[in-house]
Each structure stands twice: as structure tokens, then as C-alpha cells.
């Protein structure tokens, strides 16, 4: 008996952590369909672009105005327009609102939750700081409606999977639901180690307020040490002005085949924000490089103090400066081979095995899936 399977992901137009998780799950189910609110294939991997993709009714407008945030008020409506009647298993990959899809009672809906949407739950003020006054006012007008809808939508999920224990706590707090952890994957084999490290420190991050890249900018301007920042976002222009006359380089987007070089050759990786998990931390580990991370959130589950990196706290430039100086003295105590070995616990193959093991426990009809799965 053939079971029809669908995946749902919030939006697809860049390869960040959530898209890499989706990619790893899709590889297990070669015939599954893929639903997404907004789709722009230019920077996506072949695993995603070669799949049958069903977009939302907002897609034509997104082509004209390619900014998903302006469509937030209409996402609940768009999500409920999809028809999942022919699917027996639906797996949503969500950091937004697509968990609110409507399925039949006999359809099993598993949600891999990257986080309850930060702009609604716990980090609203940081999100508002990115908006001009008019948009800030409009968002405040709809935020409570979106919170109510998202809370109701969370009850439509049969089983939650979280990317970290940090997110388990958020799911429990905001949705009143339990969840189990399957840590996200890192493509360990795409990264390499080298003994010929350069003198620069590295950040790979989206340039939005909650990532707190500004803390690193201020710290490294005072340290007068070289820092390379890779990433795009609404704060790119502001940060470009901040780094004039300093040893800091803001590179913007870097092709993924060039990214391993920066990881492998950096002196250490800087992680100044509070993240739900932090796949870039694991990419640094896969390159044998230690990290200097803010001591909150998902980093607490990944970084081992003195073995794979150092923490700084509080979240201030001065605290980061002091920890960088400490690293300059203790850097010789970190070993690339040991750090890379730790990253292998988070390989894509390990993730796929763990995800299928969980699915086999929670989905009653799992034995009927055997012909639909590419077992790792």
C-alpha cells in the first residue's frame, strides 16, 4: 500500500539552517511533495529545486514584492487554503506559521519545529527594532491576532520534534505541548581542517538585530583585530558604515563552495547572539575551529567550555573582548582533530537515522512506509 507524503516548509529562497534540515529529511522520502508559502529557486540546492513544489496563493504577489514579512497578516489564510486530503503523512518544517495546516483526522502531522516564531514569542521587541515606524505600528496591530492563531494552530500538530532542548522549553511554554529532540544535521564531509590558520576571526550570520553582530563589531573595533563577517540582512548597510576604518570586513553573501575555506582558516568562530540551536557552530567544529559564544540558548547544548570553545557573559562588547583576550592566551589548548570528531555526532547520516527512529516510534503506520524511504 502506497502512502502519500507531503512536506511543508515556511519559505524557500535561501539555504540556511532550516533549509538544510528540510533537505536532509527530503532525501529520505524521494517521492514526497513539497509545499511552501514563497519560492525562489536561485540559491537553493538541487535536492529542493528538483522536487515537486506547491506554492501558496501568495506566490504571485511575492514575485512582485519579494519580502515575506509584508505578507504576515495573510499567512494564516494562505496556509489554510492548501488541500492535504490525499496525504496520509504530513511533515512540517517550521519556524513560522505553516504548522497551522488543516489535515484530515486520519492524517498524521509531525512538526519539526525550529522554534516558535521569534517575532511573536519572546523576541518581539528585537523584531520591532528592524521596522520603520509605520510598519512597527501595523505589526503591533496584528501581532496579537497572529499569536492567538499560532497558539490554536499548534493544536493541529499530532507530534512535535524540536531542534534542541532550548526549543523544547519554548514549545512547552508557548504552546503547552511536549516535544522530543532530534538535533539538526551538519554536512561534516563538506568542511575540512588545516594547520595553516590565518589571524582573522569569523562570523557567519544573518544580519538582523537578535543575532547581535553589533556586539562583535564594537568589540573588534576596540581590539583592533581582524574580523570577517559573512551574511546578508536588513542591517548590512548600517554595519557597513560602522566598520569604516577598522580591521573588520563585511563580505555579504558567499557561495557555499567557498564558505569552508573561511571556516577552516579562521582563528576562531564568534557567536554573539542567543540562538535556538546554532548550526554555524557545528560548521565551525566540522572545520576543527573553536568558538567563542554567548552563554545562552542553544550554544549551551553544543559548546563544551575549554574543549570546543569559550563562553562570554554578559552579552556586552566588554565581556566579548575579555574572552577573546583569554582565547589568545589559551588558543593552543584547542585541538582541531578533537573538535572535528565532536562535530561528527551531528552528521547528516546521524540526523537521518535519529529522525527515522523517532518516526517509527510515533507514527503507527510506519511499517507501511518502507517502500517510500531511502534508508541512510
What order do the helices and strands come in, and which of them pair?
Layout: E1 5-12, H1 17-26, E2 33-39, H2 46-49, E3 53-55, H3 59-64, H4 75-79, E4 89-94, E5 108-113, H5 124-128, H6 133-154, E6 159-162, H7 165-175, E7 180-181, E8 201-204, H8 213-223, E9 227-230, H9 236-242, E10 248-252, H10 259-265, E11 269-271, H11 279-286, E12 291-294, H12 299-302, E13 309-312, H13 317-330, H14 336-343, H15 348-362
Parallel strand pairs: 1-2, 1-4, 2-3, 4-5, 5-6, 6-7, 8-9, 9-10, 11-12, 12-13
Helix pairs in contact: 8-13, 11-14
How would you describe this structure to a colleague?
The structure is a single chain. The protein is an alpha/beta fold and 376 residues long. It folds into 2 domains: 5-185 and 347-372, 3-Layer(aba) Sandwich (Rossmann fold), CATH 3.40.50; 188-345, Rossmann fold. 36% of the residues lie in helices and 16% in strands. It has 15 helices and 13 strands. The strands form 3 sheets. It has a 7-stranded parallel β-sheet, with helices on both faces. It has a 3-stranded parallel β-sheet with strand order 8-9-10, covered by helices on one side. Helix 8 (213-223) crosses helix 13 (317-330) and helix 11 (279-286) packs across helix 14. The protein starts with a strand and ends in a 14-residue tail after the last helix. The mean pLDDT is 93.
